[in-house]
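[job 4471] stage=fold_predict status=RUNNING
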Amino acid sequence: MPATKTLFLVALGAVLGGCAHAGVKNVSDCGQVPVEQRLQCAACTVQNDVPGAGSGYEYRSQNDPSNRCVKL
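[job 4471] inference complete, writing structure tokens
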């Protein structure tokens, strides 16, 4: 029984860990990224609030610093 419980917890951790790689699309969600990246996150995602901008942007804090603001 304990092995099954451990396996379940490992699988659950893997699923939840996969959610951490999702990007941020709203300025209001920039609080989820590390403190030192919040200004960059806001500068990236504020572009989504511009009317008629076309495609949106997503801030991915796990990416290389030169490639964190990704055009969708």
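[job 4471] summary: The longest strand covers residues 57-59.
[job 4471] exit 0
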